[in-house]
Amino acid sequence: MKLIECPRDAMQGLTGFIPTATKTAYLQALLAVGFDTLDFGSFVSPKAIPQLRDTTEVLAGLDLSQTKTRLLAIVANLRGAETAATFPEIEYIGFPLSVSETFQQRNTNKSIVEALAELARMQSLCERTGKQLVTYLSMGFGNPYGDPWNPEIVAGFTQTLSDLGVGIVALSDTIGASSPATITPLFSQLIPAFPALEFGAHLHTTPATWREKVAAAYQAGCRRFDGAIGGFGGCPMAADELTGNMATENLMAYFAEQGEELGLDLGAFARAQAAAGSVFHF
Questions:
Q1: pTM value?
Q2: Which residues form the Pyruvate carboxyltransferase domain (predicted)?
C-alpha cells in the first residue's frame, strides 16, 4: 500500500502566492509523516503555474536526512524533465498525459501525438539518469469536453505506455467525474492485464462521494493512492470550478478500516494538519 501526498496539487491553483519559507516549512512537516512519496512541486512555466515558480528554492530548503519519503516533481515537457533530472533528491518525474485531445492542449499546449513523443523522450531520460517516470492518465475516467472516451481507449493508452517502458500509471480523475461505475471496470481490467505496471488512483472528489470512489479502486486491486490534506486543490487547467483532491485523512481512515498498515507517524500527521492552516488559511 502506497500513499502519495500531493501538496503541489493542493497549492497550484491558489491565487495568492505562498511565501517560499511557508511552503518549505509545510513540506518539511509532511516529510516527517512517512508517506511513500511527496508530490512536492513542479518544473513548468511560471506563467502557467505561478504558484510553484519557486520549486527550486523550496527544494534547496528541505532537509531530507531524516525521511524515508521520496520526492516527485511534475513536468509538462522534456525541458522540465531535464531540469528535474538534475536534482539527485528527486526520484520520480510525473507527466500528465491526457486521453482527451482537448485537455492535452489545455494542459500542455500539445496534441496527444506530440505529448506521446515527448513522453518517450522523458522515459529515455529517466532511464539514463536513474529516475522513474510516473504517467498520469488525466481524464482517465471520463471526458467533459466531448472527446471520445471508453475503457478500451484507456487500455490502448496503457498499452502504449507499457510498450515504452513506463512503470507507473496513475489513472487520474482531474475534475471529479469518476464514479464506481467507471473506476471498478478500469482497475479490474487493467491491473490483471498489465501485471508489470504499478497502477495508481489520483481521484478528485466532493466530500459526499469520496468513500465510494476509494472503495471501488481498492476493491478492484489498486494499492497506490494520491491524496492531499484537507482535500484542497484541483487542476486550474481543467475547469473554472476546482474539484478538490481526495482528502488524505479520509484515505487513512478507510485503509485503517481495511487493516492496512501505512507506517505513518500520526503525531507528525497532526502537526502537518496544523501547518496546513498557514498555507490554506483555514
A1: 0.94
A2: 1-270
